[in-house]
Amino acid sequence: MSQYRVLIDANDEIGLVHKVSTVFFNNNLNILSNHEFVDKESNKFFMRSVLDGDIDKNKLINEIKNVLPSNAGVKIVEPKKKNIIIMATKELHALGDILIRHESGELEANILAVVSNYDALESLVNKFDVPYVTVSHENLERHEHERKILESLSAFKDVDYIVLAKYMRILTPEFVDVYKDKIINIHHSFLPAFIGANPYKQAYDRGVKIIGATAHFVNNNLDEGPIIAQEVKHIDHSYGWRDMQRLGRDVEKIVLSRALKLALEDRIFVYANKTVIF
Amino acid sequence: MSQYRVLIDANDEIGLVHKVSTVFFNNNLNILSNHEFVDKESNKFFMRSVLDGDIDKNKLINEIKNVLPSNAGVKIVEPKKKNIIIMATKELHALGDILIRHESGELEANILAVVSNYDALESLVNKFDVPYVTVSHENLERHEHERKILESLSAFKDVDYIVLAKYMRILTPEFVDVYKDKIINIHHSFLPAFIGANPYKQAYDRGVKIIGATAHFVNNNLDEGPIIAQEVKHIDHSYGWRDMQRLGRDVEKIVLSRALKLALEDRIFVYANKTVIF
Amino acid sequence: MSQYRVLIDANDEIGLVHKVSTVFFNNNLNILSNHEFVDKESNKFFMRSVLDGDIDKNKLINEIKNVLPSNAGVKIVEPKKKNIIIMATKELHALGDILIRHESGELEANILAVVSNYDALESLVNKFDVPYVTVSHENLERHEHERKILESLSAFKDVDYIVLAKYMRILTPEFVDVYKDKIINIHHSFLPAFIGANPYKQAYDRGVKIIGATAHFVNNNLDEGPIIAQEVKHIDHSYGWRDMQRLGRDVEKIVLSRALKLALEDRIFVYANKTVIF
Amino acid sequence: MSQYRVLIDANDEIGLVHKVSTVFFNNNLNILSNHEFVDKESNKFFMRSVLDGDIDKNKLINEIKNVLPSNAGVKIVEPKKKNIIIMATKELHALGDILIRHESGELEANILAVVSNYDALESLVNKFDVPYVTVSHENLERHEHERKILESLSAFKDVDYIVLAKYMRILTPEFVDVYKDKIINIHHSFLPAFIGANPYKQAYDRGVKIIGATAHFVNNNLDEGPIIAQEVKHIDHSYGWRDMQRLGRDVEKIVLSRALKLALEDRIFVYANKTVIF
């Protein structure tokens, strides 16, 4: 199959769908699916097309750019497996869910490695023939620790996404800059509620009747990156915070895997600290 | 404002988006929002566009038809209030929800009348200055009763939709034919589960843990028309069937109003006993 | 029917269920339903029983108190209609939902009056033969305005609950003190997210994928009272903040009416700024 | 810890809570949590208590039975790990979810073995040091095949539950009788909708807007056993039946694991082809 994904963002103006679809038509490309969205507030146009046909990538990008406003973004992606690295700490539910999906062939991804600050998950990961790298943070300053992680990561080329599957350490802006819009985190609360440490304890103390989880890209402000997916569960007064945590794990792993799937299928546009998801 | 909705369905072939958007572009029409969907199984193409600009409706329809396969459907709708008639029996929650939305100005519709086989809801409806027509079914055969209703309805011109807000009588094919794809019903179950009478009692007997409601267009097979919207609520063993019914009312009214809104905004395509909803 | 609700809260100790149920048994009272909960963290015991039989209220309260720790709370409620006052501003969806439920006989309550700082809802309320009191806040300081409202409210005796059905003004601690644990508010967000003004705008700016509403008792800290019920809806990038607001209205009205129902049925215990709900 | 679970079902009569709690009190047992439910329609009383203290099991059962109607059921369970066997066919999502939970220590169970009619899942199961038994159905009549499975199962003693984690073969009444109320199945639809083969295809053809999954005990009527848990997901017209299947897998595994957890914690009573769940 010769299917390509074309991702376009541009300042909106009259006729964009017409112009782009004319380029597709002139190149004898069949549109298998097509989504557009115009954010009227920011006057931004987004388009994701899945095309069938023979493509000269560079030529097509140029032709599309020629009909778009000057600062438009155009990306053409062959649907091949992406490379991901998973970071985790000690909890295995989110990591385990990804490993099982990978094993089932459901994930369009190669897992290059799992990186952790503990060795607690090594035996699980080894079962799945995935390399496990422990970079302990003990006796290290945050920047030193991160430098060692970045060194480990540098062994892996063409990393498309880093998935924080309950990695319980805060990343510095220096780290985040290296993998801008490529780090997906699962936060164990319905953001922006309960930012910060132990959100289930915070939720318990507040007496909420619903708990949730949020998958988001990581930016330089902790827990404030663009949200990809959220999900919730109803609870009642009988839930202590550890019960919330237990129930929350199911939400966390499903939401993180859903966000990862959206990323692997090139369905997410990031702008204005938000996401457009087709 | 000069906003128009263009609704297209056609057999799919390469270049349809290109061809239609070219017609829009040549007519100097701005696409405010655009949705397409191709059902690959049946090779059917659907498109809904909201356009801004000056339109000669007949000319535009012709130009669009000229670029589409021969049996394509093209409809252009000015966004003006549609005319609806509500049919009900004795329960007021679904009817009341629509009346309140109408009162708040939220509904793009004129309520021409409420028609019922009882006078139980008359005092409520009169509060809202909506005509109320009682057509009792007592001592009448089904066809006779329907003929009398159709007579009453014939007084109202340009009826866009008939909303069955818990109208508890079965409509015959003859009736349905008169208002094909225009009758919206709320069924008090998660269809296709619990077709037929007293679905809450059936659900109770089966011991389900979730109840639901389904808004659908009415066709000639009872409870088997194209589904527009569905919603559910979790329950537990402590719910008797009357508790389910009480809880179910909230689901029913919200789902029916949501389906009505989709219809009034021309967002629904019906085909193959299903709906495509943009 | 001679059904009574017995509400007990006490410091927990061994044998409370035994002791209380023995009192019921000795009084020849049948337990129709019974719920207990022990909050282990605060060592608090809660119990709600629905009893069938002949009751001498004061005698029964004394007998129950005699078997409980000294500072226990015991309340016996006959299931009769409670008296409520609704406060609103200009939006009619939440108020309308309560009026319709009242009209249908679903609500175990008398609506004594609707009080508003505008006359915008007067014609709607009058349809339902409910007194409408406008107390304009124009040219008044907050305390002056509240004093005038309290004066109006003082005309109504035995007020069980005040329901803020989108009353858009902040109440002072003085006002709240008068109706402690009796004021139910609907907040148009999934608290504690988006406290304060225009939460839908805040939610839009943050790019959330779920919006919600929270019914809670009002205490002296704005938006921080004990939560009674919460509900959510999924949204996507195509929702502007006004779309969120429109969708949110359905959530708001359902959640507020659900919270009101729980209150009217004496199912809510308030403690530690939380609720236990049976 | 000396925590016991007491499970009682009996015909309802006045004073049952009093009588049972008096036995607990006289034995100096502390009630950690307590749930009762009376099904008024069938006049059945259910109670689950978690007790703390020293217990002589047989003596306590006798004392409780002495205060209950003659045909009452009383069971006392020490909270120790239960023994389960998982049956599967080729899909690994539901099985994988249980294996990961087991690995994390979240499951109060020993997995004695995984039994399948294919060897497709053997390498996955072996990773987790769980015995894998393949009993191929090829060239065997249904009863012969089941006899061979029962033989394999007979090697495992004290089996508390058999979990059908997408075991795609119908079990005969003979098989079910051996493990009455001990076989938990996940059905890939929102029962009772779409009984039988390929429910996602059926759901697609019907054009539903929500799909679901149902965990239930297996009885002699296919897909008609007592329902334990159900969950749903919203879909739209863009979902082909394979998309529904993919999304459905997440629902299936979460619902099955939730049902298993309820069973392992002795929270489920089965009667009248329904469940009471505390």
User: How would the global form of chain A be characterised?
Assistant: globular
CATH class of the largest domain in chain A: Alpha Beta
Spatially, the strands of the biggest sheet of chain A line up as 7-6-5-8-9-10-11
So what's the oligomer here? homotetramer
Please indicate the percent range of residues of chain A in DSSP E strands (runs of 2 or more): 25-35%
- Quote the average pLDDT of chain A: 95
Q: Structural class of the helix and strand makeup of chain A? A: alpha/beta
Distance from first to last alpha carbon of chain A? 22 Å
In the CATH classification, which architecture of the largest domain in chain A applies? 3-Layer(aba) Sandwich
- Low-confidence spans of chain A: pLDDT under 50, at least 5 residues? none
The radius of gyration computed from the alpha-carbon positions of chain A, rounded to a whole number of angstroms, is 21 Å
CATH topology type of the largest domain in chain A? Rossmann fold
**Relevant CATH superfamily of the largest domain in chain A:** Formyl transferase, N-terminal domain
